[in-house]
């Protein structure tokens, strides 16, 4: 096993002490180390939010973009150079709220990206408003009477849209999470890992205690991740028991595999051929 | 005396107006005549009124003409709508179905039939006789070409090219074309061309969208992401034709926000990337434009303007976005804005925009419009691709210590050496937040000031790249100032006025931002007055010139009805302004 210290940098961390993001950060470092992926071979792409700051706290290449827009940036980068290993870090508001349309498109495109959603069911950066995954009744300053509608379920959403790799992790289970991330990165299509994340500042419902009382690991059961209907059933469990692990995995054909311009290598790696370009233009 | 004929083909959307126009244009083009054609259509797939206006001449033409010499009316609405635009010697060919028997039709269409310049031709009936109503277009094209004096053999050649795969269809179309030819062979039309016998075309016929796509290829654009929006979609449709011949990928994004973020991602990863949209889509891209600005990622964005705000007139033309694109997105960052005046310049501008965007690591915006994009133009110049593409990127080999690489290193020029991610030991980090030299978020006062100043420092070098206005009789007492696609119409208006001994010239702006302040001021310093001519309501170029040079336009001639300028229209309005001055 390689050293996770190679991914440390000296940039000051800006999260609240005790934030669930630390667990996720450590799990990412561990998975990268396990995959023996040197920092210079990693590209982290993120949106805006506490989760999206993640790449700053890692020694790697990174693009920290706009709220909700990490997936299009990552998609563009991957289409330009399919040899890149790209991990996308987003929060629940970032990914399921502002970036919802991009998630739908990414699920359909099935480009080989790994999406890690730090899902703490609340907006952290803007100080505690409801997010798309906040449960009904969750009280905030912006929703003083409690959230009046049901939470979005990103897992059933992804499953219903034909996603080939859908998993859930928990920031309190770092070993387990790092294994999920590893599996997700090695999956040759679009992979979603929704990560239950504790927010110690703005979510006093979904705490470490809350999750520790409910979370169970799918792989410790006889569960097989190849049945879509079972996966949907498990993805809907919440009140008493919450499953973590790979909910569903199937073989899919990645989008870039069939694209004509990528047959001779990545767009990036192909050389400019003035003769060929001139020929094509003159033939018009 | 040169011949200059305007043919208008009008009817409902779905009647195949463009097919007729396309055949006529190709026959004239192959025979060595010059032409340009404007497409005028509504935002609908069937019905309504559409027309294609082809101006054919034995000398080059760069703008549509106001007067119609020959109107092919595939329905009676076309005649009603265009009758006031007919030239004194103009002729109308009106489709008259047989079921409205000749005698009855005289009562039914008394107005049209009584006009001496209206000839009723049973386009659709002749087509049915030849094998199907679908060939109405071929009959109409045949009739039109006869009147222009075209030999049938040239027409037959084009039909053969068009239908070479299907023998029976070709045969029927030739019969249909012949019947159109014969139907009007005894009709007088004063504007016949002397058809060159050698039949060598003088150049290429291209649409604006096609040239923008070819320019992108010549600029080595690798990824083009877009969301469909008129009038820009055609650019991407044309680019997509080359995906199996060149390393270029066209990706239809889920929305414009995604399109701009995708090209930023692609450019960050190391390939040249493009998006194309219209004002509405550009509005959605505004935040992404700022992202390219603060992350100093080169991207090229084509905004093909149409009248707005919001949905506006989707299939019409306008120049209302100049000040918007110069200022779009919050706060301040450098960008380039270009507005090519012709297909030749559009091709060159694509190459130049990609080059300068990478050289200065800033977004480059190209403003075109519906008129430019959808019109058919003739270019007599070879479209030459660059020998090599300079990429302005740095690698580990250029660095003494790659591990200390900083993407946003402060330099005097404002341009930092640009490494690409995952291509070496140098780590590349960028963020939409204000950041330090290494690309990490920073709120320190000194750092913020340094970064703002670093980005803005690029403007000096960028400004030096900008060309001043193109001068046409620039030493004149009066000048007309315009930008973008209106150049052809403005020049011709100037020619008209000069032939009437008016001391007038034109300044045409293609490089708009950073504004070529000194060069513009110099070009304006000697004229008595200048008048702006623009497709917007407030004279945005005029305002920009005043802001940047202190020179004020005497009057603005603004047209915002969504229809292109004609030289006559401009000349008429300029004349009344000049009368006011004197």
Into which percentage range does the β-strand content of chain A fall? 15-25%
List segments of chain B where confidence is low: pLDDT < 50 over at least 5 consecutive residues: 101-107
CATH-assigned fold name of chain A: Rossmann fold
Cross-sheet strand order for the largest sheet of chain B: 9-8-10-11-13-12-19
Q: Give me the Rg of chain A, rounded.
A: 20 Å
Q: What structural category characterises the helix and strand content of chain B?
A: alpha/beta
The CATH C-level name of the largest domain in chain B is Alpha Beta
| Number of helical elements of chain A | 9
Q: Based on the structure, what is the oligomeric state of the protein chains?
A: heterodimer
Share of helical residues of chain B:
25-40%
Number of β-strand runs of chain A: 8
* CATH architecture label name of the largest domain in chain B: 3-Layer(aba) Sandwich
The CATH topology of the largest domain in chain B is: Pyruvate-ferredoxin Oxidoreductase, domain 3
Summarize the structure.
The complex is a heterodimer of chains A (284) and B (582). With 284 residues, chain A is α/β, with parallel strands linked by helices.
């Amino acid at each position: 096993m390689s050293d996770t210290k190679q991914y440390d940098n000296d940039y000051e961390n800006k999260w609240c002490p005790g934030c669930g993001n630390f667990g996720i950060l450590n799990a990412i470092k561990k998975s990268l180390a396990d995959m023996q992926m040197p920092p210079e071979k990693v590209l982290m792409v993120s949106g805006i939010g506490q989760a999206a700051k993640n790449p700053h706290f890692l020694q790697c290449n990174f693009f920290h973009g706009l709220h909700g827009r990490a997936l299009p940036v990552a998609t563009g980068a991957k289409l330009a150079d399919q040899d890149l290993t790209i991990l996308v870090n987003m929060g629940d508001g970032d990914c399921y709220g502002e970036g919802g349309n991009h998630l739908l498109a990414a699920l359909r495109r099935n480009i080989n990206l790994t999406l890690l959603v730090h899902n703490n069911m609340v907006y952290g950066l803007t100080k505690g408003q409801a997010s798309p995954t906040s449960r009904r009744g969750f009280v905030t300053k912006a929703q003083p009477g409690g959230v009046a509608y049901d939470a979005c379920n990103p897992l059933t959403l992804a499953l219903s849209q034909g996603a080939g790799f859908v998993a859930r992790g928990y920031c309190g289970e770092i070993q387990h999470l790092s294994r999920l991330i590893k599996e997700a990165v090695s999956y040759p299509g679009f992979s979603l890992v929704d990560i239950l994340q504790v927010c110690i500042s703005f979510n006093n419902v979904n705490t470490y205690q809350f999750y520790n009382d409910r979370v169970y690991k799918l792989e410790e059961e006889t569960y097989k991740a190849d049945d879509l209907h079972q996966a949907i059933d498990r993805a809907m469990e919440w009140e008493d028991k919450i499953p973590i692990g790979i909910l569903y995995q199937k073989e899919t054909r990645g989008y870039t595999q069939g694209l004509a311009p990528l047959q001779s290598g990545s767009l990036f790696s192909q050389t400019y051929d003035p003769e060929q370009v001139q020929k094509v233009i003159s033939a018009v | 005396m040169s011949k200059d004929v305007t043919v208008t083909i009008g009817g409902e959307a779905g009647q195949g107006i463009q097919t007729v126009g396309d055949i006529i244009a190709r026959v004239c083009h192959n025979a060595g005549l010059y032409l340009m054609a404007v497409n005028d259509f509504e935002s609908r797939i069937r019905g309504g009124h559409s027309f294609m206006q082809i101006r054919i001449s034995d000398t080059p033409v760069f703008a549509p003409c106001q007067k119609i010499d020959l109107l092919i009316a595939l329905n009676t609405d076309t005649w009603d709508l265009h009758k006031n635009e007919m030239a004194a010697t103009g002729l109308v060919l009106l489709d008259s179905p047989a079921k409205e028997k000749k005698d009855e039709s005289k009562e039914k269409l008394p107005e049209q039939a009584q006009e001496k310049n209206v000839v009723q031709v049973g386009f659709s009936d002749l087509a049915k006789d030849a094998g199907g109503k679908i060939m109405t277009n071929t009959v109409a094209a045949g009739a039109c070409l006869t009147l222009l004096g075209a030999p049938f053999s040239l027409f037959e050649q084009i039909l053969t090219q068009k239908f070479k795969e299907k023998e029976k269809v070709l045969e029927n179309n030739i019969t249909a074309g012949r019947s159109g030819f014969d139907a009007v062979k005894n009709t007088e039309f004063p504007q016949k061309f002397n058809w060159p016998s050698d039949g060598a075309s003088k150049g290429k016929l291209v649409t604006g969208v096609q040239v923008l796509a070819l320019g992108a290829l010549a600029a080595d654009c690798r990824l083009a992401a877009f969301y469909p929006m008129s009038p820009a979609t055609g650019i991407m449709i044309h680019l997509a034709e080359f995906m199996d011949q060149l390393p270029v990928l066209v990706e239809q994004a889920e929305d414009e926000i995604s399109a701009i973020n995708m090209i930023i991602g692609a450019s960050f990863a190391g390939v040249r990337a493009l998006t194309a949209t219209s004002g509405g889509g550009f509005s959605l891209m505004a935040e992404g434009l700022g992202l390219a600005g603060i992350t100093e990622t080169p991207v090229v964005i084509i905004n093909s303007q149409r009248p707005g705000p919001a949905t506006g007139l989707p299939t019409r033309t306008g120049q209302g976005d100049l000040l918007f694109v110069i200022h779009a997105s919050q706060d301040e960052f450098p960008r380039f804005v270009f507005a090519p005046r012709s297909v030749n310049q559009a091709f060159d501008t694509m190459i130049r925009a990609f080059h300068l965007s990478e050289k200065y690591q800033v977004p480059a915006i190209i403003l075109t419009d519906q008129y430019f994009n959808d019109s058919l133009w003739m270019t007599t110049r070879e479209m030459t691709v660059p020998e090599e593409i300079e990429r302005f990127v740095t690698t580990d080999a250029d660095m003494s210590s790659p591990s200390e690489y900083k993407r946003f290193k402060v330099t005097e020029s404002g341009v930092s050496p640009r490494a690409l991610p995952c291509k070496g030991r140098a780590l590349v980090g960028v963020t939409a937040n204000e950041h330090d030299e290494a690309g990490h978020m920073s709120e320190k006062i000194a750092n913020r000031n340094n970064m703002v100043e670093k980005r803005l420092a690029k403007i000096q070098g960028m400004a030096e790249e900008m060309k001043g206005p193109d001068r046409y009789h620039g030493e004149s007492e009066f000048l007309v100032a315009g930008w973008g696609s209106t150049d052809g119409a403005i020049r011709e208006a100037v020619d008209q006025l000069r032939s009437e001994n008016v001391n007038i010239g034109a300044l045409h702006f293609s490089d708009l931002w950073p504004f070529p302040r000194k060069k513009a001021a110099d070009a304006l310093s000697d004229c008595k007055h200048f008048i702006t001519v623009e497709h917007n309501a407030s004279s945005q170029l005029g305002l920009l010139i005043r802001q940047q040079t202190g020179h004020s336009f005497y009057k603005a001639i603004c047209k915002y009805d969504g229809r292109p300028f004609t030289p006559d229209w401009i000349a008429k309005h300029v004349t009344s302004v000049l009368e006011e001055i004197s």
